[in-house]
Specification:
20 helices, elongated, 3 domains, 2-enoyl-CoA Hydratase, Chain A, domain 1, alpha/beta
Amino acid sequence: MNRQEKIKQLIDYRQKARLGGGEKRIDKQHEQGKFTARERIEMLLDEGSFEEMDMFVTHRCTDFGMQDKKFLGDGVVTGHGTIDGRVVYVYAQDFTVFGGSLSETYAKKICKVMDQAMKVGAPIIGINDSGGARIQEGVNSLAGYADIFQRNIMASGVVPQISAIFGPCAGGAVYSPALTDVVIMSDKTSYMFVTGPKVTKTVTGEDITIEDLGGANVHSTRSGVSHFRADDEEEGLLLIRKVLEYMPQNNLEDPPITPCTDPIDRINDELNEIIPENPNHPYDVKDIIYTIVDREEFLEFHRHYAKNIVVGFAKFNGRPVGIVANQPNFLAGVLDIDASRKAARFVRMCDAFNIPIVTLVDVPGFLPGSAQEYGGIIIHGAKLLFAYGEATVPKITITLRKSYGGAHDVMSSKQLRGDFNYAWPSAEIAVMGPKGAIEILEGRQIREIKDTQERKEFIKKKEDEYVHNFANPYQAAKYGYIDDVIEPRNTRFRIIRALQTLATKKDTNPPKKHSNLPL
């Protein structure tokens, strides 16, 4: 074979590899509203930047006639490229080859790009579309999954890991995305579950559809497994690019700062009027977030899950931050199990990747009731407490209105190493609200007053006294727990100034193998 023939052979091999499972299977993939692995990578990465690895790998299985069924690439496309000029490593499972099922060699391909990403210090993006373990390979397939899980664990907090679910992801396969930082699911075409509907029916008698058991809607609203629910794959891929705008390449770098044309000292007079006069009336905290951040851009995580707390990425003067905010518009902004878990994981991700945290506080306390206590609200609330206390990144806290009881401590208080703790004049910082406090402090005297009108007037007078003496920001400011009481319309400027000041902050935790956080 001469040189020209060898080159032609290479070209033919490449063409064959790019076809995956063949034209018929590609057409079927398209009919289901899904793109192929290579199409997804091309849409995700900067044009012309993808460098594929291990294109000619094939499986080694000889059981069940598998020696006669081989495809170049073996069902997963791996390599590296760039997003906005920054290096990323990527793997995309190819459903056209054996239903995207994972083999020993398939897993080795994924492990290779993960190992290289760790050496280079670059994000890892996994696009999942697989029927699970390749049954013909038995324990070798299971070992392959475990090899990937171990690398997910080692990479956690070192390089950003993002998982996109654009098809089936079931059984043991679900644990790799669950170990990553961000999970994105496409609506109607993706699902995740440990055990499928058939086995569920056999074991428990429950009759349930794939969508109701593990669809994108379920995991973005009820379980919290998915951080984003995309309308389609194109939106999902754009979300990956958007998330990476706010994240560094690795844990040794800072997030990328971009030029900003939004004035630092922009005054927002509407903020002076946004808190209702009646402390029991709700408002939307996202109105405040959009007002104070750069260009009204806020990338919200878990939008449909635990709506009583809001988390997401934004920028202040081009500097990425993570925002955590109680949402008075839903359950009065109370902290419950789901909200605590949601916020704790987000805070820990920000801390792992050197992203400052801005916390907007309006919290009446923890949600009471036996369902919460039996569900472990003590442990789950402690997760958020632990996350804030452990975090060493710059932490800026603005108390907007209520900050009561233990929830005050949990929400990035000064005692949890908050760097700048500000309050609006509308802030109420106390052990509890006026009504509950007066019932305890003046209960006996209230019961002794027989006249109904006189009792109401007495209670009103004592509540007003309590608000004047305790439910305001100045008591906390007197002790230095609040660094300053600020005018709401100046909030953006004060946050940006604080971030500039804290840019060189250094904080450390005691040396340890690892913490034993309350899981």
